[in-house]
Amino acid sequence: MREGQNAVIHRADYRPPAFWIDSVELCFDLDPVKTRVLNRMRLRRNPDQPAQALRLDGEELNLARVLVNGQGTSFKLEDSQLILENLPEGNAPFELEVFTTCAPAKNTKLMGLYVSNDSFFTQCEAEGFRRITYFLDRPDVMASYNVTLRADKAAYPVLLSNGNLVEQGDLDGGRHFARWVDPHRKPCYLFALVAGKLVAREQRITTASGADHLLQVYVRPGDLDKTEHAMNSLMASIAWDEGRFKLPLDLERFMIVATSDFNMGAMENKGLNIFNTKYVLASQATATDTDYANIESVVGHEYFHNWTGNRVTCRDWFQLSLKEGLTVFRDQEFSQDLAGEASARAVRRIEDVRVLRTAQFPEDAGPMAHPVRPDQYLEINNFYTVTIYEKGAEVVRMMQTLVAGEGDPLGRAGFARGMALYFERHDGQAVTCDDFAQAIADANPGSPLARLLPQFKRWYSQAGTPRLKARSHWDAATGTYSLALSQSCTPTPGQPHKDPFVIPVRLGLLDAEGRQISDGLHVLTEDSDTLTMSGLAGEPVPSILRGFTAPVILEYDYTDAQLLILLAHDTDPFNRWEAAQRLAIHRALHFIRSGEHVELDAPFVEAMRAVLRHPTLDSAFKDLVLTLPSETYLAEQLDEVDPQRIHAVREAMRMGLATALRHDWEWVYEQNKDTGAYRPDSRSAGRRALAGMALTHLCLAARTSGDPVWPGKTLQRFKDAGNMTDRFNALAALVACGHELAAPALASFHALFKNEALVLDKWFALQAGAPDHGGNILPVVKQLMQHPDFNLRNPNRARSLIFSYCSANPGGFHRRDAAGYVFWCERVMELDAINPQVAARLARALDRWKKLADPYRGAAREAIARVAAKPDLSRDVREVVTRALAD
User: Fold this and answer.
1) Which of 84, 313, 346, 536 has the greatest count of CB atoms below 10 A from its CB?
2) Is 324 one of the catalytic residues?
3) pLDDT tens string 548-584
4) Is the pLDDT of residue 887 over 80?
5) Category of 595 on φ-ψ map: left (φ > 0), alpha (ψ -120 to 50) or beta
6) Cα distance between residue 455 and residue 467, in whole Å
7) Pfam families per the record (predicted)?
8) For residue 510, which phi and psi values (nearest 5 degrees)?
């Protein structure tokens, strides 16, 4: 599938492998400087493919021996492949032995086998196994694995791999071994090994099916007290998957291991999940409510991959969303179900949509736009994107919506039937997105999904975010209301024309007093359609796209009066929040375009006050409503972007809410500041979030008035806090308002948590992402890069400082003097020499440079071109910058 290191890979060129690998015996002699890997494989020719040479992938390996059926054989090394031509004829199996060495301690890419904090870890997805041994490194080659690990017992007392531990013991010279056998066939990207000085929290459980299992969470000594929440999340995930989808845990044991050096959030290796410490370690003293929620979500996500990704995997990497989009949907449903009550579920849904809108919609509109199932790539690591994950999840969610029926209004039962058929057909196979969609449709033969499946699958093949336009007409004489819906999708790279999508639109109508008149689902399949309702007493207010039933941009010319009705009365929480967002966006865009002084009008302020003072609304929901649209999201509403103007307007609107609602914020803080003994549940977390928001606004108001009371109270809150959420919220409030008390608070925070790596990541990120007052943030970032605790080689630390500035602080990054772009350029090239995956993600901070107004646009292009001109640039970064510069 790859010829040369810079070849573009096309989905249309997929061919099954010329050989199958049935079984693999791996023996590792682990040494940081020189690890020896003996790989014995049992192969056979694929009778459905023409006879040809065997081409095994390998990178940065030292080849010592190749044997076929125990005998030496000729071979070639070419373009990072081991090529064998003189192999046994026919379809009879044969044995291939490959002996190689590698240097894990020098592996800064953190792909393949590497060393972190004196322990061994692996990361093989997508193409990391070839950095361990020569292999058919592709997901459709599934084999059984028998793995033996040997190492110094004192240095590496814990030896882990996939599956079940079948044998262990001591060896001569203070060494020991462990042999692991995985009972399930798997592709090599799911292989894992871990070796080091680790300790484990253990829990034995009996699942609903009556089977007993051992659960283990491995961490470095000293971190064991921070693993309770991860273990509880794992147990909840196992129970939920068995209850919701009848999918049981299929291994004797299930292990999670945490490491601080990891390119991703976590990896679902069969039975041995390797996690970034960020998504495992939590205590109330060191982790925020957001951290707790993220751990629950990511632990669930990786466990759910045990079936959606491991038991059934991808035929090729173009099908990546088969496992990722589906599993994101499953972890979203898991988090919503655990949240419980309707308001908490709605908050989770809103949070998911915010990610989609602020990250995926811009991706759809930028140079890296690609379908949920891409047609080509240069470097597969660049396609672990929000389109594959988050938009992919929305495609799955639409499937569930479209199989809803009588007695199953949400489609949960119909979707569960489809999942059952999917596993009945494909368990143990490597399949495609088409196979999954077909199973869901076939299990629900009378559903809109089954009827519209060929057209629905355009969501997999067409890039871009569809625009759903709605226009209404009211005929008072006849009491008839009509709503015209139309869809369009702008061209994306390689796709100048888009055919109509299948767009499920949940629609409600409210009367002038906010009472619901109707609610239902309409499926738009043509370029346009018109809905008509008659017999109405007055013109209704439409609540369109309730629950965000499709990943589209809704265009409807709502009046302020209509939005105020929706905000006050809509029974759909998502559209209630959306009404507040639209009210804020209308005002922000007016001030940005007009250049007028920002002054918030009374109706908007009173609407926000009504939300804050509402007696029954959930605190977390109030926090979301009062959070203004992000600078990134506002930028996407404009044809030409002046980042400094957007930043100034948003900050002025925040200040306006702070001062106009000062007494309300004081009341809100007093009502929400005390949450009792710490619990990370949704209700308590929502109250802490709203109290933190109140502190921020009170400190902002104090900046205008010069009143020292609330900054002083905030500092005291910082000192007295009994949990990280309250402490960090107070610190963030001081930093956000630029108060002189922020500096001593930051110093105190560092002194308290200087030995807590994840907490220091927050400390770095807070300063890099702070509002930019007169261009002061970039000098702070540069100074922090010289801090003794900063380490560019650690992905978490690099993300906490550099990404927080370049990717998450547009007001600070997009400087008129282009200094931010120069900094970005230097960091991309510096990181590329260490870890191309991390560098490529940073490179995407300037994806949307073409929307920038001058002088930003020209300076950004110059910075991208400077990176592109670097001769030894990695394939990862070269693909990003080349596509960014393309016309």
Assistant:
1) 313
2) no
3) 999 999 999 999 999 999 999 999 999 999 999 999 9
4) no
5) left
6) 17
7) DUF3458 (PF11940), DUF3458_C (PF17432), Peptidase_M1 (PF01433), Peptidase_M1_N (PF17900)
8) -115, 150
